[in-house]
Specification:
It is built from 14 helices and 17 strands. The chain is α/β, with parallel strands linked by helices. Bound molecules: (4S)-2,6-dioxohexahydropyrimidine-4-carboxylic acid.
Length: about 450
C-alpha cells in the first residue's frame, strides 16, 4: 500500500490520549495510525510538534451569503483565510448575511459557492424567521446545514424570533439540535429606555444584564423540555446560566466563547472601548471564573470564537451606536494553547472542546477525532513557539483583533485539510480547497 501523505513522528492527540507515532493519509482520509507505515508520495516531518484533530470553529460570521461579502469587512475567502492561518480546518457560518440564509434558495446558493471561495471546510446555519417556522425539518436537512439558528434576542442584522409560541412552533418542526442566541428580547427592549441611551462602553453589560441572558436560557430550556427537541445555547456568558445548564445536559448543550474566557469587565471596556463590545456582553470576573469551572467539569460542550468582524469606523462609534462583535477565528487556537501552557486545561480537553465537541453537537460526519476513516484534518502546533498577536497578522478585511499585542506560548504551524497542507509556517499554499461539511441528518 502506498499512501498520499505520512505525518511522521508528531505527538498525536488521539481521543484517548497523546502518542508519538505516524499517521498515513489516503484519498483525504486517515488510513492508518502507527509506526513503519511504509511508502507515501509526500512526508511531513512533525518531530517536536503536536497534531490535533482538525479544529472546528462552530460560530463565525463570514458576512457572505454566497454573493460575495461586505467590502472592507469580510467575505468567505478572507474569513476562511484567517481560519487556516490560525490552525482551524472547518468553520460553521452564521446566517445573518446578505442575502440571509433562511430558505432553500439562499442555502443552496451558499452551499454551491463554497468550493473555490473557502480555504477551510464550511458548514452553515439556516436562520429562523417568522416565515419559515414550519419548514425547519426541510431546511435542516439541506446539504451543508449544521443546524437551525434562532436569534431570540436582537443583535447584528434583522433575524429575530423572540416569542415562546413561535420558538415552540419551530421546535415542533424538524428534529435536529437547534442553536440559540438566547438573550431575552422583551427584557432587552424594556431596559433600553433606562440603560441603553448613552454613556461609557461599559454600559453595554449593564443594559444587556445577567437576567437578559439567564431568562432567555431558562425559557428556551423549558421549550426544549416541552417539545423534547434538543437545543444548544450559544455563547453562554453568565455564572447563573452555567449553574442552570449543568442540570439540563440531557437536552440542552452549552457553548462558551474564547472572549468570555479571557476578557472581563470593567477592564476590557477601559482598555478597548468599542473593541470590547459584543453580544452577549463581556461581564465581570465572576462569570469568567464560572466559565472556566464549567469548562473543567464538562458542562461546556464546545468553544467557539463568534468571529464577528465590523469596520473600524463602526467600532469607534460611541456607545450604544457602536457595532457589537469581535474578530476571533484566527486567534482562538494560539490563545487557548497559551492557556494549555499555563495549566488551565489539557491539550486533550482543548481537542474535545474545539474539535470533537462541535463535531458531536452538530453531527459533522468524519470530523472531530483522529481515528482511521475520518477526514485527514489536522491542526499541527508548536507548543513551545512564542509569538505576539498583532493587527497586521489578521487576514480579516476589517484588520483588527481585540488581542493585538497579546503574547502567546503555542502557535499553529500547519493546517491540513483532507490530506492537503493548506497552511505551513504562516503561508497558505495553492488555492482554496474548502468543501461543504457533511452532517448526519
Ligand atoms: O456581538 C455579536 N456580533 N453577537 C452576535 O450574536 C452577532 C454578531 C454579529 O453578527 O456581528
Amino acid at each position: 500500500m502506498s499512501y498520499d501523505l505520512i505525518l511522521e513522528s508528531g505527538t498525536i492527540v488521539l481521543p484517548w490520549g497523546e502518542r508519538e507515532t505516524d499517521i498515513a493519509v489516503k484519498n483525504g482520509k486517515i488510513a492508518a495510525i502507527g509506526s513503519n507505515l511504509g511508502k507515501a508520495e509526500e512526508r511531513f516531518n512533525a518531530k517536536g510538534l503536536h497534531i490535533l484533530p482538525g479544529l472546528i470553529d462552530p460560530h463565525v460570521h463570514f458576512r457572505d451569503g454566497g454573493q460575495g461579502g461586505v467590502e472592507g469587512v469580510e467575505d468567505m475567502r478572507s474569513g476562511s483565510l484567517g481560519a487556516v492561518l490560525g490552525g482551524v480546518t472547518a468553520c460553521f457560518d452564521m446566517p445573518n448575511t446578505n442575502p440571509a440564509g433562511v430558505d432553500v434558495e439562499s442555502l443552496q446558493a451558499k452551499h454551491d459557492y463554497i468550493p473555490g471561495h473557502s480555504w477551510c471546510d464550511i458548514g452553515f446555519f439556516a436562520g429562523a424567521t417568522a416565515d419559515n417556522l414550519d419548514d425547519t425539518g426541510a431546511l435542516e436537512a439541506l446539504p451543508g446545514v449544521c443546524a437551525m439558528k434562532v436569534f431570540a434576542g436582537s443583535t447584528t442584522g434583522s433575524l429575530l424570533v423572540a416569542d415562546d409560541a413561535s420558538i415552540e412552533r419551530l421546535m415542533r418542526s424538524g428534529r435536529r439540535r437547534v442553536a440559540f442566541h438566547s438573550e431575552d428580547e422583551e427584557r432587552l427592549q424594556a431596559r433600553k429606555a433606562e440603560f441603553g441611551k448613552d454613556g461609557p462602553y461599559s454600559g453595554h453589560y449593564v443594559w444587556r444584564d445577567v437576567e437578559c441572558a439567564f431568562k432567555g436560557t431558562r425559557r428556551i430550556t423549558a421549550i426544549a423540555e416541552r417539545t423534547g427537541r434538543p437545543a444548544h445555547i450559544l455563547h453562554v456568558s453568565t455564572a447563573e446560566e452555567f449553574e442552570f445548564l449543568r442540570e439540563h445536559k440531557d437536552l440542552v448543550g452549552c457553548e462558551v466563547l474564547v472572549n468570555h474566557l479571557l476578557q472581563c469587565a470593567p477592564d476590557v471596556y477601559e482598555r478597548l472601548g468599542g473593541y470590547g463590545v459584543m453580544n452577549p456582553p463581556l461581564r465581570e470576573k465572576r462569570h469568567m471564573d464560572a466559565a472556566w469551572a464549567a469548562l473543567a467539569d464538562g458542562t461546556v460542550d464546545n468553544i467557539g470564537s463568534d468571529h464577528a468582524p465590523h469596520p473600524r469606523e463602526n467600532k469607534e462609534k460611541p456607545w450604544p451606536e457602536v457595532a457589537a462583535g469581535l474578530t476571533g477565528v484566527q486567534t482562538m487556537l494560539p490563545l487557548m494553547l497559551t492557556k494549555v501552557n499555563e495549566g488551565r486545561l489539557s491539550l486533550l480537553r482543548l481537542a474535545q472542546l474545539m474539535s470533537e465537541g462541535p463535531a458531536r453537537i452538530y453531527g459533522a460526519v468524519g470530523k472531530g477525532r483522529i481515528v482511521t476513516g475520518n477526514d485527514a484534518d489536522f491542526s499541527v502546533v508548536d507548543l513551545q513557539a512564542r509569538r505576539t498577536i498583532e493587527n497586521k497578522w489578521i487576514a480579516s478585511q476589517c484588520g483588527w483583533t481585540p488581542f493585538d499585542g497579546t503574547g502567546c506560548i503555542g502557535w499553529p504551524m500547519a493546517t491540513i485539510i483532507r490530506g492537503q497542507v493548506v497552511m505551513y509556517e504562516g503561508q497558505v499554499t495553492g488555492e482554496p480547497v474548502g468543501r461543504p461539511v457533511h452532517f448526519r441528518s
